[in-house]
């Protein structure tokens, strides 16, 4: 309350905190990357901001494209100069650690599929979020909307996607373009890759129980909720469903064996379980990557890459899924 005698604010009552603050342990009280972005944003100047991680970079040829790419925010022919056309602008990534062994190649393929093919598709549906890629950001907008990411150590484990939630809740755009490509490095050892996938899967759990996710799910329709599911936690939820279904599938055939029901009897009953599944439907996820490699590198290289890396990728993602 304003006190006219002392000409200052006077504390009237201090309400006790009902629940303790959720902080990290030890020296890690918050998310390091998100905290660095929030601190660095105070010293950033200009209309547009780009935050690069230590594993990202580009060569000078791509740098020459940047002034032209930034015109996407405010096209020269646009008559309305009040607001920009989008708040985040994403682009392609080249994973240069694909040359560092089998694990690096498998991880690079997964990251390239997600960071380039998947982002382009989500952009077309208007459902693309921000996932920590080297996106360009509307600097003025992000300074007035809480920063480029959220930094709570427990809730915001996947700190970057909450910036995408921020864009989505304000009905702004976050498109993807193919005119620019930056380099990015990923883990090329088995243990490091496992730790990364564990961190992202744990972040998906935190996303599902977050306030932002709850608000978005309450306010979008059924069609938008389908695309929102695939742009948020679909990958790890789908993996969980696949794991559970495999256990149920094996348990079901154990029960058939104990009941003395063989495949012939199942066939006579017209059951779909009479067919032994040699080729899994999971191979359908290879189709977008194969077609993208055909477009960029040609059919011969695409087939060689897909067939040659199938065995290694199978074992790699089996262990990562666990």
CATH architecture of the domain at 30-76 and 83-232: Alpha-Beta Complex
Going by CATH, what is the homologous superfamily of the domain at 30-76 and 83-232?
Answer: Spore Coat Polysaccharide Biosynthesis Protein SpsA, Chain A
Based on DSSP secondary structure assignment, what is the total number of beta strands? 7
- Could you describe the largest sheet, including whether it forms a barrel? 5 strands, mixed
N-C termini distance: 57 Å
The oligomeric state of the chains shown is single chain
The average pLDDT value, as a whole number, equals 83
What share of residues are in beta strands?
A: 5-15%
- Percent helix, as a range, is 40-55%
Return the CATH topology of the domain at 30-76 and 83-232: Spore Coat Polysaccharide Biosynthesis Protein SpsA, Chain A
Contiguous runs where pLDDT drops below 50 for at least 5 residues: none
Structural class: alpha+beta
Tell me the name of the CATH class of the domain at 30-76 and 83-232.
Answer: Alpha Beta
Strand order of the largest sheet: 3-6-5-7-4
Shape: globular
Count of DSSP H/I helices: 14
* Rg (CA only): 24 Å
The SSE order reads EEHEEHHEHEHHEHHHHHHHH
GO biological process, one term: (1->3)-beta-D-glucan biosynthetic process
InterPro entries: Glyco_trans_48_dom
Domain Glycosyl transferase: 18-259
Keywords: Membrane, Transmembrane, Transmembrane helix
